[in-house]
Amino acid sequence: MTKKQTLWVLRGLALGLAVVTWMFITSSRTVETETAETTIEPSVQYNNPAANDLIVLNPVLRVQVRLRGPASLISALNPAQVTVVVDLRDARKGMAEFPLVPSDVVRPQGLEVLSIEPNLLELEIDRVASEIRPVAPRLSGEPAAGAIAGTPTVEPPTVLVRGPESILATIESLATRPVRLEGHALDFEEQALIVSPSPLVQILQPSVVTVRVPLAIPGQPENGG
Prior knowledge:
3 domains, 3 helices
């Protein structure tokens, strides 16, 4: 091969390399600028920065959010990266409407919110209170030897609970887990866990009480008599 032919071969290789490089760069730019859309169901978070004495009785846990952005971001998006935040700063007790706007959606930078469904939440807001309620022990089963159970007592007799005012207003007393009478013919006592009547009601203190159950066998003198 002559020197001139070698020169032309090298020029051809250089041209081919330049074309391949141009195609690669163009393809990369196309991927970077290509947009895509997706719909996800992120969780809804209720934020109360002003105080901690409000609660949502009928919270909406998830909504549908339509997002648009670079295809690379959309394809790698995890629903856990997106959260819808409802601000309860100015909320009051009672029914209230909370519109959802794109600024309420926490998402990765570069993604645009196209829509939120539903875009209006109707929520029931209540105030949280701490109150004292009596404890009513629950008995189950039958004592041994024909014994008959008398009226049980509880120590301590009351418990401090915390929950929505509207729910606390319907609670006259709190029950314990059942105290089983099987196998007992004489007076006995047993520790029993207090059962919350609602997932929104928290047992503060105590969570466990001592239940004392008097037992008597008909025809025999009472214990201690």
